UniProtKB/TrEMBL annotation:
Keyword Transmembrane recorded: no
Gene name of this polypeptide: LOC101504039
Keyword match Ubl conjugation: no
Record family assignment: Belongs to the PPR family. P subfamily.
PROSITE patterns for the chain: PPR
The PPR repeat ranges on this chain: 19-53, 54-88, 89-123, 124-158, 159-193, 194-228, 229-263, 264-298, 299-333, 334-368, 369-403
Record's protein name: Pentatricopeptide repeat-containing protein At1g12700, mitochondrial
Keywords for the protein's UniProt record, in alphabetical order: Repeat
Superkingdom to which the source organism belongs: Eukaryota
PANTHER family: PENTATRICOPEPTIDE (PPR) REPEAT PROTEIN, TETRATRICOPEPTIDE REPEAT (TPR)-LIKE SUPERFAMILY PROTEIN-RELATED
Pfam families: PPR_1, PPR_2
Length: 462
């Protein structure tokens, strides 16, 4: 960029005048290099020199700001444009609408859309796609479909991206029938599916445990001449592993190699997790070795799968050694890592080891989750240490509501843990003490206004 500006300087010294194309090129170059604020200073400088910038100039600056996540400054620049002789256009509005939607400021985005309409700036398919996406990511599908119908009424043809957004959102809400209806509408309008459409369809079927239908989509895609990419394979491999069809997943992995599709970290992590959960930990370690050989970085997700398998088999010394190995390799364990280890140690009768790790996490200021506390309380109950279990529960009194509910909904694993604690207590020989703790837990649950939801979920689980 320095060279570009030095050339501009020489041109000006020779008596030539830079035109708008030259200025736009320089501003675009600055924005592409992440120097948006320098581009804005350059804008101010050329304005002072009497140059009149174009819609392309301002579109470039707004795009640069939005890509840097500076949506509000982009909006301020739009307001400044409206005070000048240059008129704001659909590209500028659509760019800011897109950025607002990605920030989940959907109401602001929609207000900007209404402002466009009021100023008689006609929205295009990109404007609608941005808004539809925005409403979908905040779970407002009704409003998203309202915009879809509005764009059709305005004779703006939805494109493959429009349909992909809607189909993906419907699948994520488990509305498979509605998603298929949108897909049928897409075909009827003659919009050709893209590889992303196939991703969405396969992922949707896998989400509702219909992996066989996902495989049919995969085969249909190949038959139509659309080459599957690594993400296609990852979706099907994940679906197969989740359905305990690890053998089929490994066959698909081999097929990837035959088709010269290069697996990535997600591919390996998915297979390693599937193999670990099916008890084939030795095969999982072979894949870890393969990752090292081909230069793929093993991460915390990889190690967590292996750790879970070791704990499940009660290979607790190996599990502790694995966490140490992670740290030695510069891979920082996350809360899932510690939760798996603490739970494994408690279940394996190594309560003291679990307590050491638990206290270490507290002293280091870790934000402990419901799962962490559940594991420790279960471990204490298992050892008959009811006073300690109650004391630990007391430490959670300030956030008792969060103990049972991550937000406003009870998590089933928390409810199961709650039930397990009750069973442990009621089946213990110290019945009177158990009932005391039981009553105390009940009282705290009522205080958290959670007991109705707890029994409701317990009823669903039994």
């Amino acid at each position: 960029m320095n060279f570009s500006f030095s050339i501009l300087g020489k041109i000006l010294k020779m008596g030539f005048h830079g035109n708008i194309i030259t200025l736009n090129t320089l501003m675009k170059g600055l924005c592409l290099n992440g120097k948006v604020h320098e581009a804005l200073h350059f804008h101010d400088h050329v304005i002072k020199q009497g140059f009149q910038l174009s819609q392309v100039s301002y579109g470039t600056l707004i795009n640069g700001l939005c890509k840097m996540g500076e949506t509000r400054p982009a909006l301020q620049l739009l307001r400044r444009i409206n005070q000048k002789s240059t008129n704001a256009d659909v590209v500028m509005y659509s760019t800011i609408i897109d950025s607002l939607c990605k920030d989940k400021s959907i109401n602001d985005a929609y207000e900007l859309y209404l402002e466009m309409i009021a100023k008689r700036i006609s929205p295009n398919v990109i404007t609608f796609n941005n808004l539809i996406y925005g409403f979908c990511i905040v779970g407002q599908l009704k409003e998203a479909f309202g915009l879809f119908h509005e764009m059709v009424l305005k004779n703006i043809n939805p494109d493959v991206y429009t349909f992909n957004i809607l189909v993906d959102s419907l699948y994520k809400e488990g509305k498979v029938k509605e998603a298929m209806n949108v897909l049928a509408m897409m075909m009827k309008k003659g919009v050709k599916p893209s590889v992303v459409t196939y991703h969405t369809l396969m992922d949707g079927y896998c989400l509702v445990n219909q992996v066989n239908k996902a495989i049919k989509i995969f085969n249909a895609m190949v038959h139509k001449g659309v080459m599957p990419d690594v993400q296609c394979y990852n979706i099907i491999i994940n679906g197969l592993c989740k359905n305990k069809m690890v053998g089929e997943a490994m066959n698909l992995f081999k097929e990837m190699h035959n088709r010269m599709v290069v697996p990535n970290v997600v591919t390996y992590n998915t297979l390693i997790d599937g193999l670990c959960k099916s008890g084939k930990i030795s095969y999982a370690w072979e894949l870890v070795d393969e990752m090292h050989r081909i230069g793929l970085q093993v991460d915390v997700i990889t190690y967590n799968s292996l750790l879970h398998a070791l704990c499940k088999k009660n290979h607790l010394d190996q599990a502790i050694a694995l966490v140490k190995k992670m740290k030695d390799q510069g891979i920082q364990p996350n809360m899932s890592t510690y939760n798996i280890l603490i739970d494994g140690l408690c279940k394996g009768g190594r309560l003291k080891n679990a307590q050491v790790i638990f206290q270490e996490l507290l002293s280091k200021g870790y934000h402990l989750s419901v799962w962490t506390y559940n594991a420790m309380i279960n471990g204490l109950c298992k050892e008959g240490l009811f006073d300690e279990a109650l004391a630990l529960l007391s430490r959670m009194e300030d956030n008792a509501r969060r103990f049972f509910f991550a937000s406003s909904e009870a998590r089933k694993d928390d409810v199961v843990s709650f039930g397990e604690k009750f069973n442990n207590l009621m089946n213990s020989p110290v019945m009177f003490h158990s009932q005391k703790v039981n009553r105390e837990m009940m009282f705290r649950a009522v205080k958290a206004k959670s007991i109705i939801a707890i029994f409701k979920f317990l009823g669903e689980l039994t």
